[in-house]
Amino acid sequence: MMNIQILYGTESGNTELLAMDLEEEIADSGDHEVEFADLQEYEVSSLDSSKYYIFACSTHGEGELPYTAQEFYETLVEESPDLSDVYYAMFGLGDRFYEDTYSQGSEVLDKKLSELGATRVGEYGRHDASSLEVTPSDAALEWLPQALAAFSEIGEDVSAAS
Question: Of 43, 44, 78, 83, which is the most buried if we count CB atoms within 10 A?
Answer without folding.
Answer: 83
